[in-house]
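Q: Give me a backbone?
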Amino acid sequence: MTPPSAPPASSLRRWLPHPWWSLWLAACWLLLEDADSPGHWLMALLFALVLPRVLHAFMRLPPPPQTPDAPDTPTRIRIRWQPIPRLVAHVLQDILLCNLIVARQALGRMSALHPAWLEVPVSLRHPLAIDLLASIITNTPGTISCTISPDRRRILVHALHCDDIPGALASIHRRYEQPLAAIFDTPPETLPHAPSR
């Protein structure tokens, strides 16, 4: 009698494409809800199983275009965890400081404001990293990312007040784009119009 064969590894991978993300989502939900009822454990299980599967497509690059001048872009990019605290610290610090700055500007003279449109050059290649960059810019008080260019190489940003456009571009590149590039293991290209300081 032949013993039953073990389930293929691909079956487990299909249900848990990102096991560490699943564990992190379940733990966060249980910590937020204090895990005092079976319903919270059930919701944690649902989040752990469903969300990574739904977002799995965003964790990979689409195949590069089949053109002679297409860059050699990998279809899978390893996510690194070490740079995440640096990015989170930058975002939280900027949200706090920008809230204070915007509140002071709102209470001041409107004529003192200098709104500006910024065309932020994007050197990231991973689509999720680009979307995260646009989201971070939008959630930082005083700036709103309005659109990502069709070639995903520029983000149009409206700033409530900006006296130094090159400095603002350099700050976005240094504080947000470089950590995102490190997280998604895709070193950003050197952009002459977005120098680091």
